[in-house]
Amino acid sequence: MFLSKLTINVHSRTFRRDYANVHDMHRTLMSVYPDVPADTPKRQAHGVLWRLDSNRGSYVQYVQSHTRPDWDKLPDGHLNAPAEIRPLQPVLDAITAGRKLAFRFVANPTRCDNKTRQRIPLRQPADQIDWLIRQGQTHGFVIPATAAGPDIAITPTATITGRKSEPSKITIEPVRFDGHLIVTDPAAFTDAFSNGIGRAKAYGCGLISLAPSRTL
């Protein structure tokens, strides 16, 4: 597995287009990976997850994948600096039972409406935290408690929009979680780390960044 760090040129025409339509951003990222058979979902085949971090008008995009990407295929001027790629085996090796790790995770917490079967965004922080704790129960981790409650901080994140095809519109209300977790089931958590958690993985959700405890 690989993690790429892309320093985005916010003035590039392709980034401005992609920022306005997350499905275009997805297609730009997928263009750097080898083609797969037509009946095989390309994102899943290469295990691609990504997150766009903003800081005072600049953007850094983190892209995780099972396959090594070829960032030279990006349009000219898309980046402000050469892409950085590093293997993730050291992180995978750190996933052991009882290990406490710092994490950052942008997710798409939703619930299913019983009547319409539509996905409803969870907008209350308490509901969002409960959602993450439930994810831990099935993905091999727990959130440790502090004196103030679960060791999680929530940061508001801009709504993601786009359009895959007419008339379907993409609208995602993501949430960024920062905090600590403790690995309870290394196999389950390794699978979650490798393949992401939750919905909207093609559109910037699901990537879990890990670091040694209290250093992220």
TrEMBL record:
NCBIfam families documented for this protein: casE_Cse3
Annotated protein name in UniProt: CRISPR-associated CSE3 family protein
Organism from which the protein derives: Amycolatopsis mediterranei (strain S699)
Gene3D superfamilies: Crispr-associated protein, domain 1, Crispr-associated protein, domain 2
Lineage: Bacteria, Bacillati, Actinomycetota, Actinomycetes, Pseudonocardiales
InterPro entries per UniProt: CRISPR-assoc_prot_Cse3
Pfam families named in the record: CRISPR_assoc
Superkingdom: Bacteria
